[in-house]
Amino acid sequence: MRQSQVTTQVSTEAQGVKKANRRRSGAVTVEYILLLTIVGLGSLVGLAQVRNSLIDELTDLATAIMAITP
Question: What pTM, to 2 d.p., does this model score?
Answer without folding.
Answer: 0.56
